[in-house]
Structures are given as C-alpha cells and as structure tokens.
Write a structure and sequence with these properties.
Elements (H helix, E strand, L loop, with lengths): L1 E4 L14 E4 L5 H8 L6 E3 L6 H6 L1 H22 L3 E7 L22 H20 L2 E7 L1 E3 L17 H9 L6 E4 L11 E2 L1 E3 H14 L5 E6 L5 E2 H12 L5 E4 L8 E2 L4 H7 L8 H14 L7
Parallel strand pairs: 1-2, 3-4, 4-5, 5-10, 6-9, 7-12, 8-13
Antiparallel strand pairs: 8-11
Helix pairs in contact: 1-3, 3-4, 5-7, 5-9, 7-9
Length: about 300
C-alpha cells in the first residue's frame, strides 16, 4: 500500500507503518504515474480541501485543488491502466434538501463552493467511467467523527473547525469557548442537525466499496447512521462523556450552513452489507475524547 500526501493538512504520524509514504501532490502527474506503475490496481481518493467556510472565502483554491487535481489524477490512472477508484465525496453535494432523510436520488444542489467542487469531482469521475472504462464508487460522507478505539488515530486539523474536536479542545482548556453558529435554524432546538459517522465505520465502507468495483461501473452511496443530532445535543453528549461543562456561546450563522443534513444509508446497507458499529453519538465522542486526552495538541510530529 502506498500513501500519497503533500502533508499540508496530513500527518506523518498518521500513516500506518506497513504503508509507504510518498510526499507529493496528485497534480504531479509524473510522480503519480511512477507510483501507479509500481503494481497499484486501485486508488482511494481522499485528497481535497474540505472547509465550507474557507471555500466561501477562497473558491478558486477549491476549484484548482479539488477539481483540477482530480482530473490530473484520473488522467494518470487512464495512462497507467488503473481501473478502480473509491472517491470520498460529501453530503454537501446535496445542498439544502427539503426532506427528512437524504437518499442517493435526492437532487444534488450544493450551496457552497466546497459542495460544488465535490459535485464536479463526482461528475468528472463519471465521465471517465463512460469514456475510459473506469470503475468507481463515490462515498458521500456525512459528518466523519471519532477516533480509532485503540486511540492511535484521531482528528487533527490545523486550524481546527470541526465540531467534536473543537468541543473537546474547550474541555481540555485549549480554547476559551465553543461557538454555536446560529440558534435560530428551523430545528427543534434552533441549532443545525447533522448525521455523525465514526471513522472506523467509514474505513469499512471504503474496503467494501473497493472490493465491489468492476470496470465500467459507477455507484454512489451515502455513508451515515441515518440519525441526526443537533449541535446542542452533541454538546450535551460531550458533557456526559467528559463529565465537564462545555463553554458554549452563540455566534452568527455561517454562510453556506444547511439547517439539517441526515442520511438514508439503506442503499449501502443493502448493496454492500455495510452496518455502522459505532452509531451512538456518546460512543463516537468517547473514542474522540480518549484520543484528544492522549494527544491534546495533536499528532506528535
């Protein structure tokens, strides 16, 4: 197994010792071709910028890296005859659907540059399926969360703007407060509702997806629990898990935040036999809390 990462957001310490780390970018076609020629028969494509707020401020950064980078990766795969790809897509491609639970037939109408860039990535992959015989699966993540149960792998973004790590950093005294961006959404408690999926369950979905691919086929799956939790409910769960008070303050809404994103994950369950093992929000937060308690400032580089 080869891991290609430019390490602008990744961490050497997170790479499994059984894997070979190549430091570089998917836009470096010569490097990607060299790696693919070493016996690689499938690509799991995670490389993308992923902040909604940043994408609103810097849309070109997202189009250049996410979309153009994916096209260059696909070009190298075509030239080297690599026919399988699993792509990490996102629920942000759905935008603000007026449905209780989102399934894969829900129209994709993203409302921010991040979601639009991910939808464009899906589209160029589909075009390569039709034109070049690529086999691909897009996994539309909802809110990836938690840490490995053995506390070896966790969530470490710099700067950090993901809800659960921000909450746990506040509990650890690393930040003074947690900003709740809006408490006037059309939800029961006024805060945004999201579907949180544990990273180990996501990893299992990727393995099943990779095994399912045949050349010339394309499939998209939601990867989620099917249960939504509001920001306020996540804060309350963190207080139960940690036994500490979360210093939360209400702040203005962020541009591009949908009020509710909850999935219907039945298609991946029926098709691939996937089931989330860590569905309870308290369990997800508990795994994250144990990792953040062990590595309060992130991975030791």
């Amino acid at each position: 197994m080869v891991v290609l990462d430019n390490l602008t957001a990744g961490h050497r310490s997170a790479v499994d010792r059984r894997a070979t780390l190549e430091v570089g970018d998917i836009a470096d076609t010569a490097l990607v071709k060299r790696i693919l020629s070493s016996g690689i028969d499938g690509v799991v494509h995670f490389a993308a910028w992923l902040s909604v707020a940043e994408s609103v401020r810097e849309p070109l950064k997202y189009w250049l890296n996410n979309v153009a980078g994916t096209a260059q990766l696909l070009s190298a795969m075509r030239d080297q005859g690599v026919k399988r790809m699993v792509f990490s897509s996102t629920a942000a491609t759905y935008g603000m659907p007026n449905v209780e639970r989102i399934d894969e037939t829900t129209p994709q109408l993203p409302i921010n540059p991040y979601g639009r860039s991910k939808l464009a990535m899906e589209r160029v992959i589909q075009d390569c399926v039709h034109a070049h015989g690529l086999g691909a699966v897009s996994l539309r993540y909802f809110n990836a969360s938690g840490a490995s149960p053995d506390s070896t792998l966790g969530e470490d973004h710099r700067p950090e703007d993901h809800l659960i790590p921000v909450i746990l950093q506040s509990v650890l005294g690393l930040r003074s407060e947690v900003k709740v961006f809006g408490d006037d959404f059309p939800t029961p408690d006024g805060t945004c509702i999201r579907d949180f999926i544990h990273v180990d369950d996501l990893a299992e979905a990727h393995l099943l997806a990779l095994q399912s691919i045949t050349p010339g086929s394309y499939q998209a799956f939601n990867v989620a629990t099917g249960t939504g939790h509001s920001v306020q409910e996540v804060i309350q769960a963190a207080e139960r898990v940690t036994g500490k008070k979360v210093p939360a303050v209400v702040a203005p809404r962020r541009e591009g935040d949908p009020p509710r994103l909850v999935a219907d994950p039945s298609l991946i369950m029926k098709t691939l036999g996937w089931r989330p093992k860590y569905a309870a929000i308290d369990t997800i937060i508990d795994t994250a809390w144990r990792w953040h308690s062990k590595f309060p400032t992130g991975y030791p580089e």
